[in-house]
Structure formats: C-alpha cells, structure tokens
TrEMBL record:
Job description of the protein: Required for the activity of the biotin synthase BioB.
Species of provenance: Micromonospora echinofusca
InterPro entries given in the database record: BsaP_C
Domain Biotin synthase auxiliary protein C-terminal as annotated: residue spans: 52-72
Similarity section: Belongs to the BsaP family.
Keywords linked to the UniProt accession: Biotin biosynthesis, Iron, Metal-binding
Cleaved signal peptide residues: none
Membrane-spanning segments: none
Protein's name according to its UniProt entry: Biotin synthase auxiliary protein
Length: 73
C-alpha cells in the first residue's frame, strides 16, 4: 500500500490525514504506516482526523468515526 493508497483507503476519496498515525498525508513519507496497515485496522478517520472506535473481529475489523460512519475490512 502506497501513501496515496493509504490516503484513499476510506471511501475512495482523497483524504488529508493518515488513517494510522493521524498526521497529514502531505507531511512526509507514510511508508511505515502503509506497511503496518496491511495487518492493522485504521485508527484515525482519514477525513477529519478523529480517533475512531476500532473492533477487531475473527473475520476482519470495523472502525467507526462519529462523523463519517463505519469502515470494514
């Protein structure tokens, strides 16, 4: 997953925030975040930078932003 892939992971729209570390996507390289996201669910909303409620399930994960809703994987 590249930085642009991480930015568009939620909903296909370009996002301003990294969904793993919560920092601005344009602030630098997020190669470590992209590598970690292969195994981990997103922790921050890529649209508003809010910390999301994350639930890891036997068949995947669910992350919920109070503003933008749920993402599943």
């Amino acid at each position: 997953m590249t930085t642009s892939d991480a930015a568009t992971a939620a909903g296909g729209a370009s996002a301003a925030w990294c969904d793993r570390c919560g920092e601005a996507v344009a602030a630098g390289s997020h190669d470590g975040c992209a590598a970690a996201r292969v195994l981990e669910p997103p922790r921050f909303c890529p649209h508003c930078r809010r910390r999301m409620k994350v639930q890891v399930l036997p068949v995947g994960w669910a992350s919920v932003c109070v503003e933008h809703g749920e993402m599943r994987g």
